[in-house]
């Protein structure tokens, strides 16, 4: 997403099966060399490699794990039969209109 709220496809890479920091460093360096001077907030899926590579190429960027992956990762702390309940109880946190509201919803979520 750009600051003008448009989406740009910057490239398509077919990897050799590796998704580590070295692979992502190559991809991000190529993007930077093609003119992508700065990245504000890359959203990653929770792998260890992308945040390390982002830090090396764009040290001021704030890496965010996508909400879907955060939610999926939280399921490991609940029994399978409770996953729907956890997902429903957590939704007000990530759909909150601002940080203060999200903090309040998270405190409520902790009490459930």
Automatic annotation (TrEMBL):
User: What keywords does the record list, in alphabetical order?
Assistant: DNA recombination, DNA-binding, Transposable element, Transposition
Please, which domain of life does this record's source organism belong to?
Answer: Bacteria
What does the record give under GO molecular function?
A: DNA binding; transposase activity
Q: Quick check: keyword Secreted in the entry?
A: no
Database matches in PANTHER family? MUTATOR FAMILY TRANSPOSASE (PTHR33217:SF8), TRANSPOSASE FOR INSERTION SEQUENCE ELEMENT IS1081 (PTHR33217)
Q: Which family does it belong to?
A: Belongs to the transposase mutator family.
* Protein name in UniProt: Mutator family transposase
Organism of origin is Streptomyces naganishii JCM 4654
